[in-house]
Design brief:
33% helix; 6 strands; globular
Length: 237
């Protein structure tokens, strides 16, 4: 038996400003840091020892994981993978969600945010917000840097990485992944076999560890959010 723990990073500066963030590499707010520290305390209270740590390549996920480790008094190295990055929001990147909803209509924005395979228009590669112009991604192969993504695109890169690099370690110890709303939604779709309609209803709270109990056959036995006051409906459990 092993535990897989999924944490969406704490509140980021662009979460606070209600902007489409995607691959733009913003940091945590002070509240986000507190969420991350609390996540670590919640995990510590479960008396769970983490053997493998993973995060996306993005600062908000990396710093969330570092603060979790501080709470756990654990300084071991962790693996950073661009495949766990947030979904790329294309031309929506940087825009305020409320203002954009007023301009394009709430239904259209809801489709962009929650649909399975709808991509926003691509982001101009000359934009300062394009990943190819952000130093964080200088070592990511150009062919792997998107101009826009759907949740389906995000699902494909996240689950490929999970299958090839993470899944094999589940029988050897507990795993913690610090990532993003959409990359965790994608992984939950895969793990819990959520269909393409139900996935639109899945919301991942910031800074709240999702504890998944997995048996020796890598079947899910149970799952729960450790902060029950901020728990979201998992759709399937």
């Amino acid at each position: 038996m092993s535990y897989l723990i999924l944490i969406r990073h704490g509140q980021s500066t662009w979460n606070l400003e209600k902007r489409f963030t995607g691959w733009v590499d913003v940091d945590l707010t002070e509240n986000g840091k507190l969420e991350a520290k609390k996540s670590g305390i919640l995990i510590k209270n479960q008396n769970i020892i983490i053997k493998y740590y993973y995060s996306s390549l993005q600062l908000r996920a990396i710093n969330t994981l570092k603060l979790v480790q501080q709470s756990l008094n654990d300084k071991q190295n962790f693996i950073k993978a661009w495949q766990l990055n947030e979904r790329h929001y294309g031309a929506l990147t940087g825009l305020n969600k409320i203002e954009t909803s007023k301009k394009l209509g709430e239904e259209k924005i809801h489709q962009f945010r929650r649909s399975w395979d709808l991509r926003p228009d691509p982001l101009d590669r000359k934009s300062v917000f394009h990943p190819s112009n952000i130093d964080t991604y200088k070592n990511v192969p150009t062919e792997n840097i998107p101009n826009t993504e759907s949740l389906k695109d995000t699902y494909e890169r996240v689950t490929r990485y999970y299958d090839s690099e993470i899944k094999k370690n589940l029988n050897n110890g507990n795993i913690l992944i610090s990532a993003h709303g959409n990359s965790i939604r994608a992984l939950c779709k895969y793990l819990f076999k959520i269909d393409e309609i139900q996935i639109s209803n899945l919301e991942i709270p910031t800074g709240n560890p999702l504890l998944i109990d997995i048996d020796e056959n890598q079947k899910i036995k149970s799952c729960k959010y450790l902060d029950q006051d901020r728990a979201k409906n998992l759709v399937i459990f």
